[in-house]
């Protein structure tokens, strides 16, 4: 079935005569007649009856007409999408990140987008799997892990690693805590699959500090809730909740611990330049947010 035949059918149905339908399409009447006859043969139904010099839709034609309209709209949408692809534009963008990055970084960033920006969606993936999603349809992956060198990428943020305490905790009036102090505290830590935990463990190992956490959690929100109840110190990169006081964690050299956040995309993506511009915009946003 050719779209041109469907266009002729819809034009004649709207205009009421072949002559008027042909004029709307800017083609000759014989060509429109042939297209409609061809369509009727393909569909094996009669679309029009002639009545008083005009064409009237048959019952079959009435049923087919709305479907034909949808088909033409969908064809127009395909053409628009193809032109966008050819021009390197993004109409929709599929973002992927770990849950903490989604909630604390990407969602606030999306709230700053204009109405004419690409329509976003965000899927959650583990830190170790996030970049593999670029091979399965994701457009932009954001994670606290350096991506493979074959991907286009940039560092979009350096997130501080916080030691969060309840307002009643003895450290609540401070702005920082050193690793050796932290090692002796009642620690409420995330599981080792979290980047925050990996960074903390690496820093503790570098200073030969062993710790035995009081508890481990699969949810940063739950870890913060338990810390807010006065059970200990939770360590994470999440924005503080439940009135917790965040303290900078410093190593033996006085440097603050943190995590680099990376954005990555497939260099062969049709809109690779647009994705790089999005990564640059995310970098600007995080600089303002975490300045």
Automatic annotation (TrEMBL):
Return one GO MF term: DNA binding
What SUPFAM superfamilies does the annotation carry? Periplasmic binding protein-like II (SSF53850), Winged helix' DNA-binding domain (SSF46785)
By what name is this protein known?
LysR family transcriptional regulator
UniProt lists the family membership as follows: Belongs to the LysR transcriptional regulatory family.
Q: Which residues form the HTH lysR-type domain?
A: 1-58
The family database entries (PANTHER family) matched by this protein are listed as: HCA OPERON TRANSCRIPTIONAL ACTIVATOR HCAR, TRANSCRIPTIONAL DUAL REGULATOR HCAR-RELATED
Q: Report any Pfam family annotated for this entry.
A: LysR_substrate
**Keywords of the record:** DNA-binding, Transcription, Transcription regulation
Database matches in InterPro entries: LysR_HTH_N, LysR_subst-bd, WH-like_DNA-bd_sf, WH_DNA-bd_sf
This protein's source sits in the domain of life called: Bacteria
**Gene Ontology CC annotations of this record:** protein-DNA complex
């Amino acid at each position: 079935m050719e779209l041109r035949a469907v266009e002729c059918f819809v034009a004649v149905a709207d205009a009421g005569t072949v002559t008027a339908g042909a004029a709307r399409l800017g083609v000759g009447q014989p060509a429109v007649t042939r297209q409609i006859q061809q369509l009727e043969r393909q569909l094996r139904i009669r679309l029009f009856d002639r009545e008083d010099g005009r064409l009237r839709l048959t019952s079959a034609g009435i049923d087919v007409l709305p479907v034909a309209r949808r088909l033409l709209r969908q064809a127009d949408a395909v053409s628009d999408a193809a032109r966008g692809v050819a021009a390197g534009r993004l109409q929709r963008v599929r973002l992927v990140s770990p849950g903490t990055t989604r909630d604390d970084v990407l969602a606030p960033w999306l709230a700053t987008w204009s109405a004419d920006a690409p329509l976003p969606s965000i899927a959650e993936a583990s830190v170790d799997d996030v970049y593999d999603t670029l091979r399965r349809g994701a457009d932009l992956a954001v994670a606290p892990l350096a991506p493979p060198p074959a991907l286009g990428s940039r560092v979009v943020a350096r997130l501080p690693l916080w030691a969060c305490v309840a307002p009643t905790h003895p450290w609540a009036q401070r702005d920082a805590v050193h690793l050796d102090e932290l090692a002796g505290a009642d620690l409420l830590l995330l599981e080792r699959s979290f980047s925050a935990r990996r960074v903390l463990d690496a820093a503790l190992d570098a200073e030969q500090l062993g710790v035995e956490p009081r508890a481990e959690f699969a949810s940063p929100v739950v870890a913060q809730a338990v810390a807010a109840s006065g059970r200990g110190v939770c360590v994470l990169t999440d924005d503080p909740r439940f009135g917790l006081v965040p303290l900078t964690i410093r190593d033996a050299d006085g440097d603050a611990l943190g995590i680099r956040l990376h954005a990555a995309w497939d260099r062969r993506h049709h809109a690779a330049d647009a994705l790089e511009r999005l990564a640059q915009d995310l970098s600007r946003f995080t600089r303002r947010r975490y300045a």
